[in-house]
Write a structure and sequence with these properties.
Blueprint (H helix, E strand, L loop, with lengths): L4 E4 L22 H12 L7 E3 L6 H4 L5 H9 L5 H8 L11 H20 L5 E4 L21 H13 L4 E5 L6 H7 L5 E8 L26 E6 L6 H19 L3 E6 L17 H10 L7 E5 L5 H15 L15 H14 L17 H8 L9 H8 L3 H14 L9 E3 L13 E3 L5 H11 L10 H15 L5 E5 L3 H15 L4 E6 L13 E7 L12 E5 L10 H15 L3 E6 L7 H11 L7 E5 L4 H12 L14 H14 L15
Parallel strand pairs: 1-2, 1-3, 3-8, 4-5, 4-7, 5-6, 7-8, 9-10, 9-11, 11-16, 12-13, 12-15, 13-14, 15-16
Helix pairs in contact: 1-10, 5-6, 8-9, 8-11, 8-18, 9-10, 15-16, 16-17, 18-19, 18-21, 19-20
Bound molecules: N-(4-aminobutyl)acetamide and zinc ion (ZN).
Zinc ion binds next to loops.
């Protein structure tokens, strides 16, 4: 399994610049690249990356996407004087030529292809290319919106051709619609294109009808173009996460890409003059972390927009450090998507219902009176998420945002040391555990007895359970003291170990512990004080304490042949977990577990996005394959392929829907439709 993160950057690409006055284009400055690179240096991320040289994309490679005519026009600008350059530039919507533009654009294409090659050849696991000019507005025969050649589209065509790929996912989180990319792939079912974008009911540039949610693709490509229009500015962290949970990620898991490419614009981040959105830099760590779970981790991130230099630089750093496998920082702000975001999410889900098995039972009865609702929503209240952030941007003051970010980033902690996983291991475990897993010595019996008899005597009745508790304590302690990020302990009594672990961490001072029980658990601790949230995934119906928001029983038996559990993880568990915002996650795998190895690994991998990646797993079943998969998920090596895709049955979809209805007032990230909201 490949490791390492590539970074591609060349100063040469800063030579492309605007030579005359143009208030539309003057934000696309060379410093976007150089200051992001310096920011990476100041966080000591540069030395951790594998540096790859750029190259010029060849004419043949450019012609994979563009017309010969377009290539010739671009080539001809190299020798033009300023006046001629200006005249050619005026043929396009928002583009400027410089004598070095053609060369830079070829380097930008080549950088994207270098990254694809390194990832596909297994030289690195993933990587980022910092390039200018950007690409996603560029079309077969036209420059547009600061873009000359469509770097990402060329990279996708190249990957299909050179590596025979049949499924590529392009995620465009730039705040503008990559209409160029949409046009290039709209009839192509081998490329799934997702874009969210500021739209404001078609008032925002490029103001196209085809940027709306009902543009789902054409011909064979129907269903493979996903547009999520934002009809208000001020969208924040929770809106972006909701879009991932309820739209992109389930589709991406069903699509099962072999490679993921990100059109990575950061103008969707706070402070950007174009986007006017409120999402803070750490959201990009989360988005990156989610995408790392697809395509066996093969992820190529290619820069597009981003015009607030400080916001851009911080967001680039968040992305790169997540690619490197560092713990994911805690997300800030109130976790509730706004009404307008939920409406957009509902609309795109409805539009895609015919094309995705996972959406087969989506309720679309609201469609008739949709236009009225949209009208109402124009006047709806402002976005409640990231309150402090929105106050800043309402005044739209670049200096203020800079100050805000400076303070904000100080609060975004990066747990030291980056990702270490502890285990006491078992006989010969060093042979199957992945690298970076630290074996720790077990506590001796007297030590444990001393600890347990003090505070946990009521839980521990039998002497023989003491030994397994020793493992629990020694690992948990390292997590609590932040010596390691996460850990696994084998225990013949997982429920008991988890109960002790929960009580211990609350005693230690943790305020919100998320506990996921998998299997039959006898011992469910008291959750009344809200310091614990328990999600119990089991086959048998649980009778106790339903209706309490801190104890949720999810009856789920994974389909034997494949994997349908992702629909429960994305549609329910993650939204609840992100609403709760735990500072520690405990996962207990007990007897009669109704989930397979891949389901458990997926759960752990995705829950690493919470609590600064602090996860403690206690596991009763010490089957080597399970232990190994859990350890891999914890160290952030990507999870194994999820097996044959099995869409959830109607019964299961209904179950999730019922739980969502029951809990969405309490756990607001569950909201994916507005029908009860207005
Ligand atoms: C790549 C990118 C934006 C163009 C805006 C033109 N382009 N008004 O962010
Ligand atoms: Zn943009």
């Amino acid at each position: 399994m490949a490791s390492g993160t590539a970074l591609i950057y060349d100063e040469e690409m800063t030579t492309h610049k605007l030579l005359w006055n143009d208030p539309i284009c003057d934000i696309e400055v060379p410093e976007r690249l150089s200051s992001s690179y310096e920011q990476l240096r100041s966080y000591h991320l540069l030395e951790r990356c594998v540096h790859l040289p750029v190259r010029e994309g060849s004419e043949e490679e450019i012609l994979l996407v563009h017309s010969l005519e377009h290539l010739e026009v671009a080539k001809s600008t190299q020798t033009m004087n300023e006046e001629e350059l200006k005249r050619v530039s005026e043929n396009y919507d928002a583009f400027f030529f410089h004598p070095s533009t053609y060369h830079c654009a070829r380097l930008a294409v080549g950088a994207a292809l270098q990254l694809v090659d390194a990832v596909m050849a297994g030289k690195v696991r993933n990587g980022m290319a910092l390039v200018r000019p950007p690409g996603h507005h560029s079309q077969r025969n036209a420059a547009n919106g600061f873009c000359l050649f469509n770097n990402v589209a060329i990279a996708a065509e190249y990957a299909k051709l050179k590596y025979g790929l049949q499924r590529i996912l392009i995620v465009d989180w730039d705040v503008h619609h990559g209409q160029g990319t949409q046009y290039i792939f709209e009839e192509d079912p081998s490329v799934l294109y997702f874009s969210w974008h500021r739209y404001e009911h078609q008032e925002f540039w490029p103001s196209l009808k085809e940027s709306d949610y009902d543009a789902v693709g054409l011909g064979k490509g129907k269903g493979f173009n996903i547009n999520l229009p934002w009809n208000k500015v001020g969208m924040g962290n929770s809106d972006y996460l909701a879009a991932f949970f309820h739209v992109l990620l389930p589709m991406a898991f069903e699509f099962d890409p072999e490679l993921v490419i990100v059109s990575s614009g950061y103008d969707s981040g706070i402070g950007d003059p174009e986007g006017q959105m409120n999402a803070t830099p750490e959201v990009f760590a989360h988005l990156t972390h989610f995408l790392m779970q697809l395509a066996n981790g093969k992820l190529c991130v290619i820069l597009e927009g981003g015009y607030h230099l400080k916001s851009l630089g911080e967001s680039v750093c968040m992305t790169v450090r997540t690619l490197l496998g560092d713990p994911v920082p805690q997300i800030t702000g109130e976790m509730a998507p706004c009404l307008s975001a939920v409406e957009s999410i509902q609309n795109v889900r409805a539009a895609h219902k015919p094309y995705w098995k996972w959406l087969a039972y989506e309720d679309t009865s609201f469609l008739q009176n949709l236009s009225t609702k949209s009208h109402l929503l124009k006047k709806a209240n402002s976005n409640p998420s990231t309150e402090d952030a929105s106050q800043i941007t309402n005044n739209n003051n670049t200096v203020k945002v800079e100050r805000f970010l400076e303070l904000h980033m100080k609060n975004i902690l990066f747990p030291v040391p980056p990702i270490k996983t502890a285990t006491t291991g078992s006989e010969g475990s060093e042979h199957f555990l992945p690298e970076h897993v630290q074996l720790v010595k077990e506590m001796d019996e007297t030590e444990i007895k001393a600890l347990v008899s003090g505070f946990y005597a009521d839980l521990v009745k039998e002497d023989k359970t003491l030994l397994s508790l020793g493992r629990t304590f020694v690992i948990l302690d390292k997590i609590l003291k932040k010596e390691v990020c996460n850990g696994i302990a084998a225990s013949p009594t997982a429920a008991l170990s988890a109960a002790v672990a929960l009580r211990h961490s609350v005693r230690f001072g943790f305020q919100r512990v998320l506990c996921v029980f998998v299997g039959d658990m006898q011992m469910i601790p008291n959750t009344e004080d809200g310091k614990m949230l328990i999600i119990n995934i089991c086959e048998k119906e649980q009778s106790r304490k339903t209706g309490c928001k801190h104890y949720i029983s999810l009856n789920w038996k994974e389909d034997a042949g494949g994997n349908d559990f992702f629909s429960a993880v994305l549609g329910f568990i993650l939204p609840v977990a992100y609403s709760y915002q735990p500072d520690l996650t405990v996962i207990a795998v007990g007897p009669n577990r109704s989930l397979g190895i891949s389901g458990i690994s997926l759960l752990i991998a995705l829950l690493r996005g919470l609590a600064e990646s602090r996860v403690f797993v206690v596991i009763e079943d010490t089957e080597i394959n399970l232990m190994q998969s859990v350890a891999k998920a914890l160290v952030g090596a990507s999870t194994p392929p999820f097996g044959i895709y099995v869409p959830p049955t109607q019964e299961k979809v209904n179950k999730i829907k019922a739980l969502r209805d029951q809990f969405q007032q309490e756990w607001k990230m569950l909201q994916s439709s507005v029908k009860d909201g207005i």
